[in-house]
Design goal:
Distance between the termini of chain A: 44 Å
Helix content of chain B: 25-40%
CATH superfamily of chain A: Beta-grasp domain
Structural class of chain B: alpha+beta
Shape of chain A: globular
Strand order of the largest sheet of chain A: 2-1-5-3-4
Structural class of chain A: alpha+beta
Order of helices and strands of chain B: EHEEEHEEEHEE
CATH topology of chain B: Aldehyde Oxidoreductase, domain 3
Oligomer: heterodimer
Number of helices of chain B: 3
Radius of gyration of chain A: 12 Å
Largest sheet of chain A: 5 strands, mixed
Number of strands of chain A: 5
Largest sheet of chain B: 5 strands, antiparallel
Number of helices of chain A: 2
Number of domains of chain A: 1
Strand content of chain A: 25-35%
Number of strands of chain B: 9
CATH class of chain B: Alpha Beta
CATH superfamily of chain B: Molybdopterin biosynthesis MoaE subunit
Number of domains of chain B: 1
Helix content of chain A: 10-25%
Strand content of chain B: 35-45%
CATH class of chain A: Alpha Beta
Distance between the termini of chain B: 46 Å
CATH architecture of chain B: Alpha-Beta Complex
CATH topology of chain A: Ubiquitin-like (UB roll)
Shape of chain B: globular
Chain lengths: 83, 153
Amino acid sequence: MTFSVHALFFAAYRDLVGAPSLAVELDEGATVADLVRELRGRGAPFDGLPVEPAVAVNRTYAFLDEPLGSDDEVAFIPPVAGG
Amino acid sequence: MVYSAVVPDAIDPASVLAHVGHPEDGATVLFLGVVRDHADGRPVGGMRYDAYREMADGVLAAIARGAAERLGTDRLAVVHRTGELEIGEVSVAIAVSSPHRAESFDASRYVIEEIKKRLPVWKKERYTDGDAEWVAGTRPPGTGRAPKVEGVS
C-alpha cells in the first residue's frame, strides 16, 4: 500500500527544486526521514536538499521520525530569517 | 487584546500602537525592524520577505500569546511584513504596554527573538550590484533528529 503527501518548498529550497510543491508517493508507515530519502534518491536537484532538513508537518514543526499519513502537508523549511 | 498578523502591505506603526495602551499603563514600547542599506559591508538596495503564510499566522499568534503570558497583560501587538521592501521600510512592528517599563521591554525583546528563532519567514537581500542572496538563518526548534529519551530504547 502506498499513500501520497504534499511536499512544499520555500525560499532557497524552492529555488533549488524549481517548484513550490510536489506530490510524493510513499510506502505505508513512512516517516519524514523516508520522504527525505525518497526525494534525495531522485538525484539532482533533490540531492541538494539537506540529509536532515527542518520540516513542518501540517503546519507544525516536526522531527524526522514523525510518521506521515495520506494527504499530509510536509513543508521543507530552510533556516528561518524573519524580523 | 493580543494582536498578530502577517501582512503583504506597508506597516503603519501608529495602527500597531493603537492595539495597546490602558489607563493603568505607564510604559509603552514600540520596536520597529527596518531594512538597512548594507550587509557585511556590501551595499543593499532592498529586501524580499517570503513566508509560509498558512503556518506563519499561527506561529506568530503563538509567540504573541507566549509574550503576553510573560507580560502579565494582553496589551501586545505584532505585525510582520512580506513582499518586496525598500531601504527604511518596516519589516516588523511590535507594540507593548504595561504598568511599568521592565515588562514592556522584556516582552518586546522576547517577541523579536522568538520571531528570529521560529517564524517561517525568509529574506532575500538585493545588492546594489544586481546580485541577490537568501540571508543565512536559524534552524527552528523541534526539527531535525528527535532527541534521545532516557530509559527508552
